[in-house]
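Build the 3D complex.
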Amino acid sequence: MKAVPRYFVIWMRMAAMSLKAQMSHPLGSVGFLLGKLIRILFFFAFVVAIFKNVKELGGYDLADMALFFLTFNLVDLGAQILFRGIYGARRVVEEGDFDFYLVQPCSPLFRIMFATLDFLDLATALPVLVLLGMVFERLPALGAARYALYALLTLNGVAIALAIHVLVAGLAVRTQELENSIWVYRDLMFMGKFPTDIYGPVARWALTFVVPVAVMCTFPAKALLGLLSPGWILYSFFFCLALLAFARRYWLNSVSQYTSSSS
Amino acid sequence: MRKYLAAYELALQNVLQRRSSLIMDRVGGVAVLASLYYFWLALMNGHKGFFGYSKAQMISYVLAINVLRSFVMTGRGWELVGDISGGRISSYLVRPMSYGGYSLALDMAQKTVYLGSAIFEIGIFAALVRAQFYLPRHFAAWLGFAATVILSSLLFFVMEFMVSALAFWTSESGGPLFCFELFIQFAAGAFFPLDVLPKVIRHVLYLSPFPYLVFFPINIYLERVKPGEALRVLAIQGAWLVVMLFFASRLWRRGLRSYAAEGG
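Done.
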């Protein structure tokens, strides 16, 4: 626990460097920001337009569907904002910079994962939070406990995303392969835009037990709506802890096999 | 022409050689396909039709998106940005060939593999979920679909080429390209049919080249566009292609004049 303040200082320093880097490319940053906003707003407009023609979809009304969609965005953006550094992991390993990470008095995993704080995604999160506030207003009074559980399960979703990113980082150190695995993860996350109840039984099973998109994106919203049983809530937290433990072991094992051949 | 065919063959071998990249790339595409398929299936549950589409037509629209994403909306924009920004394009400029033609040959090689893969994926997916699939009753619809898909593929290539060519003037052209790629997917109907959008937005989009990339080709396949109207769509697509080619060639020439071979 003594290391926490030191790591916070390192994180702040890296965040400041990320901000300066992003500010030094204004045109590029504006383009990326606009693209991200287009993606969210077009999809949101699509969901709203659909509900002008139907009253419910898979048993959910507009407010419910918007909640699922925005919860997906919250988890996805949380991971994008915090763990953006993973996208540079291959370069770090290929160019030999990872050797320097290993000799520094700081966890190399921490350096790789948190090397970049994505301020563009931070800006994208603002409209998501505003829309989420509007959805909360449309929901019936649910009580503070439900909202607390929603927040906890959403954080649980981000923690699962962390574990997946650690696995990808381990893969990068081990094989220098990264782009494909991280993009497959991003594409699979696409399925979290909608409640996983709408998918077929096989897909639903896979999204709950194999690629935990349902646990990350659908469960928090279902818990808020009072549709998630205590068993599934426990499963969510247990799954997260187990995956984090596995990811940590995989990372340590990958680092132990690192041969420094790129440097 | 032979040198471009040789470039096409080499690029084809290159794409097929990187099998793990190809498979992972396609797995991601299937996830998007499955997601949209189940979304529309849930939506059509209890409805005979939606926005004028029958259930089979809507499901086919979603499946066809996978084909058109693979054949139309894949390009070499990011490679072009990298080639210009990193100065690598210099080595192509001194060769006795056009960079645009060379780029198109490479683009077509990737599209050939992706198209074959997309058709295979749809076949497997449709069989697994026993999807209702709409097959055009008239040969003219098949012909019209094939013609519009080829034109839309060329149109996307030229438009992406133009946006990527911004790299001649700024090292930050990745941002505009990213924005362009996301916007075009929605504006072209590559996520959902444009009929979903409010009338005003739809009609504004119809004035742009974007719906001619995905939305109209699929509607020709679904026989929602009458033969006479299909000819009009083809003519407009052709006109947009000529206009874009004109501007792209002008932009390219001006870009080459300001190119400083930085990093090369």
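The radius of gyration of chain A is 19 Å.
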